[in-house]
Write a structure and sequence with these properties.
Elements: E1 2-7, H1 14-24, E2 28-32, H2 45-50, H3 61-73, E3 78-82, H4 90-93, E4 98-103, H5 106-117, H6 123-151, E5 154-157, H7 162-175
Parallel strand pairs: 1-3, 1-4, 2-3, 4-5
């Protein structure tokens, strides 16, 4: 089994791209970071970023257990991780065969998040959310560009369509010898 991780900022396309890859990769399954409640997680993201964004504070044991379970079951050829840390967390990095960072422009990710999460929000709620974005979320996303992007094997242009991103990832996996014939 080959394990492929896909990282991006919030609303950068991780989940959508992993879904598209599942359609295109025979005998694949996925694990999604957002489906877990991790102990030791970060309560104050701005402070965590200001303090250097130590990815090891996250207790990723539940995710690691599910990766090991998938390996033991052996019922898939590809395990896709919708996972924001690439190789930056010691508990998971040893299982990753290829790490991708979808480099989605921050304005596109912001627009997607507003459209996705704030469809019925008032103008005031959107304004307050944008203030929070500028003050707290954007610095965290910039930190991801400093840490996660360079620790990934491949960087994919997140301004493309989902289909094109999936095709680019599959091409990189083929070139890198990760895909089976």
């Amino acid at each position: 089994m080959k394990t492929i991780s896909v990282a991006a900022v919030t609303a950068g396309g991780k989940t959508t791209v992993v879904g598209e890859l599942k359609k295109r990769l025979p005998n694949s399954r996925s694990l999604h970071f957002d489906d877990y409640n991790f102990g030791g997680g970060v309560e104050d993201f701005p402070e965590w970023v200001r303090n250097g964004a130590d990815y090891q504070v996250w207790d990723l044991a539940p995710l690691e257990e599910d990766i090991l379970k998938a390996r033991e079951e052996g019922d898939c050829d590809y395990l896709l991780l919708d996972y924001p840390f690439a190789y930056r967390h010691n508990a998971v990095k040893k299982y990753i065969d290829a790490a991708f960072f979808i480099d989605t422009p921050l304005d596109i990710a912001l627009a997607r998040r507003i459209l996705r999460d704030m469809g019925s929000a008032t103008g005031e709620e959107i304004r307050l959310d944008l203030e929070t974005y500028l003050k707290h979320a954007r610095p965290a996303f910039v930190q991801m560009h400093r840490d996660i992007l360079p620790s990934s094997d491949y960087v994919i242009d997140g301004g493309q369509s989902v289909e094109k991103i999936a095709v680019d990832i599959l091409a990189k996996l083929t070139e890198g010898g990760v895909l089976h014939d």
